[in-house]
Amino acid sequence: MKFRAIMGALCAAGLMCGVSAVQAAESIEVLHWWTSGGESKAVGVLKDDMTKEGYTWKDFAVAGGAGAAAMTALKTQVISGNAPSAAQIKGPLIQEWAAQGVLVPIDASAGDWKKNLPPEIDKIMHADGHYVAAPFSVHRVNWLYINKAALDKAGGKAPTTWPEFFALADKMKAAGIQPIAMGGQPWQDLTLWEDVVLSQGSDFYKKALVDLDQKTLTSDKMLNVFDTVRKIQGYFDAGRTGRDWNLATAMVINGKAGMQFMGDWAKGEFANAGKKSGVDYVCAAVPGTEKSYTFNVDSFVFFQQKGQKSATPGQLALAKTIMSPAFQEQFSLYKGSIPVRLGVSMDKFDDCAKKSYADEQVAIKSGGYVPSLAHGMAQPDAAAGAISDVVTKFMNSQEDSKTAVAALAKAAKTK
Ligand code: GAL
């Protein structure tokens, strides 16, 4: 045991929390947005691991799904010279922050990462040839969660096409069940919309949301996407304005609603409520997306502390712990995701996670593995934000699909 760990353990045991122990423990301030039941449990594993290693965890949690509020808080912190030790940042935003010259490389902790990460994800963790981010797990975004009792009552099976979906939603309605639980924030609107884009095929998704190809963005298929979203909205309940995603998940958990479109962090809520897949709920790929996989990889980046251009021992230990096999397993078991590190055993995982893993392998081989736009993996912040505005405006007004498509094509040009 290292000196720091010994002092930390003594302190935790209430034995010797004197000045020397306090001075020995580096304090690590961590900014994240994992505040729902399942999310807190998952990040709690990291806190416990770091505390055991002798560091002091300073939690800087900013509530708000998908992190919009957390990102605003982070900018304020960095501008005022109070950057946290680490912050939850992912996708192209990693490079955007690196370009500001405020991050530290963590190569010293990443000796075995290259051979243990899928190449497309390994690349995202880099800036200027150095590792600057540590990845947690892979979330699949294109899921539909269904309350099992509601499904049985409607006499249905998980839908694989939109006509099947609408037929099931109608049956739930006829059986007195609210068909869809939906939250009311722009990122949740965008999550559903990108699901429907994906249902038109992963090639269409890539051309539209990765390449931002104007012809694809203005195609009849895209009109169809907006029409389908409008139709799905007909099955929402009235109270969605401002509703958090986990409250919508709770409606499905408690049988107040039949279905929710959400990434598999929702599974963390089911697990936290003691619910079992296949018994209490069913996870299915969004209709029409069985062979595709929108990935969302959470990661932490590490900020310069007191003007130092290299990582502190605590930052290096944090990065190392995040990628350790034991942490990868336990974090994902609570979070609803699957480990991003290759070769971690899936034995302890449930059917939904095993399906996620199997579907991921298929999608990678077939070209159906695509980055989620709604979760910051596909585009720089500015373009993603402009597209999000278009989708949210459409979903919160009576705008027609043609007007939305024209606005979308314009938004995609945002630099
Ligand atoms: C996503 C994030 C997930 C989950 C979700 C809801 O963007 O990647 O880890 O936390 O937001 O907050």
TrEMBL record:
Pfam families: SBP_bac_1. Transmembrane segments: none annotated. It is found in: Periplasm. The keyword S-adenosyl-L-methionine does not apply. The keyword DNA repair does not apply. Keywords: Signal, Transport. Residues 1-24 form the signal peptide. Its main location: periplasm. PANTHER family: ARABINOSE-BINDING PROTEIN-RELATED, BINDING PROTEIN COMPONENT OF ABC SUGAR TRANSPORTER-RELATED. Part of a binding-protein-dependent transport system for a sugar. Belongs to the bacterial solute-binding protein 1 family. This is Probable sugar-binding periplasmic protein.
